[in-house]
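Complex record, two chains
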Amino acid sequence: MATITRARVAEGLVAPWVEWERRCPKGRRLLEAGTYALTEGAIAAGCRVFAGYPITPATDIAEYMSKRLPQVGGYYMQCEDELAGMHACAGASLGGLKAMTATSGPGYTLMHDAYGWALTNEIPLVVVDAMRVGPISGITGAPGQGEFYVARYCTHGGNFETIVLSPSSVQEAFWLTIDAFNLSERFRTPVTILTDQVVSDMWEDLFLPDADEHLDFVVPRKHNLMMPFYPLGGADLDVPPNIIGRGTGVCVSAYTHTEEGYDIEEMEAQWAQTYRLVNKIRHHRDQLSRYETIGLEDADVVAVAYGADARTVKTAVLEARRQGLRAGFVRPITLWPFLDELYERDCHYVVCELNYDGQLVREVMRAAPDRAKVHFMGKSAELHTVAEVVAGLQGVARAGRIPELPYIWTEVR
Amino acid sequence: MNKLAAKYLRPSQIPTKACHGCGIGMIENWILQAIDELGLKQEDVVFGTGIGCVGRQTFATWGGDNFGATHGRALAVATGLKLAQPDKKYLIVVGDGDAAAIGTSHLIHAARRNLGVVVICEDNMGYESTGGQFSPTTPAGYVTNSSPYGMVEPSFDPCDVVKAAGATFVAETTATQWHQTVKIVKRALQNDGFSFVHVRFPCNENFGAYALGTRDTLKNLEWIYEHTQGRKADGGATDFVWETGIKHDASNSRPEFTKLLRDMNARVRAERTAAGAR
């Protein structure tokens, strides 16, 4: 296969892979699916265990993994359910191997049990949720964006922060998966890739760095071989993950724990553990900014969208600008922690997302200077059309409100 | 502290928070005896557990590496761990809730795969840490805090379930049978595959108090022993009988699950090397 040279980075994109692409000149150019890119990204990041349960539209990740992992000395395990899948990933990660699972909404719901265990015990792993329209089984082959908050509050009990990333193209799915693994290692926490049926199933141009090229930006797995196993009360990054099976005497459990990992029922221990779980992420928000913007300098109205939906919304913003509207565009890639700083401009916001209840829009309302100027364009089961979003942007710019459009919901109460 | 506890357990974590007269500590001591007689060291064994009486009382007592999973998921965690650390022995010490109720699907599939772990199901015949509700192993008809008129469901025998699913070693014993239990745990640890050991023990505070009408440890132990013999102290027959001993021994008769995966990987990689693939 011919070696190609490429540098194709969107302007206005802030993400570590802008630099990574420049550092990987040699590779292969393919036409592949998002699920393929997610798989190859994981393998490039050093993932050696996949444990999960097939579900549309994430099934192809399982199938690709079953083929690829044995080739690189890894293990594919098809579990009895998603509970087993994510717990087995946590077990494998505790044993020293990087691990990933992938699912869609109905399976994601079953993973909250394991999320809590992995979060509390600071176990690095990556979970892909390819969202489809719901609630529950919904339409298996239609995109949705219903897990924006569920991914943030991915287990019960509170007292934690989460890292959630969302790609909008096949190429980005590849780089972002490496990034997700890196963050999970550095922050010692499960990281969620919140993608959707369109990005998962879509076939697109994909550049893969050569397999023999050393990817020096991949964060390798390290092992914590001594006490403290849980540095409570601190917020440090890059604490090596704990390992079971090396005779360190580490204790890992579902309970509030001491530095040794012993279960304890004292408030001071609870507060110290909570401090770390929350602040290791809050205190390092500067390391978590990934987003794309257009025209924020002069925009009167800014369209906000993420994932696959951001593709038509971005095209609509460019079209509106061509028509003379001062339109802007924000695509958060890091969904959580929420990037409040992207909404500092005092202007109108049009938030497009694939649900009727309004999830992302509520966070934009909270972050924007004037929540009265935040407008909702909710759609269900299919992407916004460019024409719909252009009409929405024009309506807000001219009359301060979204015009009535079929199948578009604007109420958020 | 006895010599075995000093050798294998964590002084800071024992005695446990178990109730007076609980059988959990006694069974753990017998497990230590089996480990010691096999010459295993702390670093050879990973100790996994779950939630409830057995989980809470045994977690972090083992001097080596420990994990306490969410309720029912100890075997799911162990499946991933065994992939990553295949050379360790895994003692999965759980109660009847973890093994026979909330985690039954993982138990069945671990047995089917012949995952190389030893499950010790310490069964106090109900959910005693939440106050004594019935479980799938509570004898039918008995009174508990959630079956005040007698449990109407039939109970099931987890040994039958794992045997049907493909476990390579299955045994049943009780907290009244010291030497038999030590012998069984030793045999279980020598199987490079899925071993299941069911150990019934008395709960004085709840099952004993509500089902049997006594908090007397010796009386509760005696009730269990009588049911292993089928005969009461007064010579009459018991209402049912528990057959104890080794119920199925096909130790080392088929490959362990993670070995199958490692062998497949070796074959795939050899074929790719032979084909000149990158």
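Note: The two ends of chain A are 55 Å apart (CA to CA).
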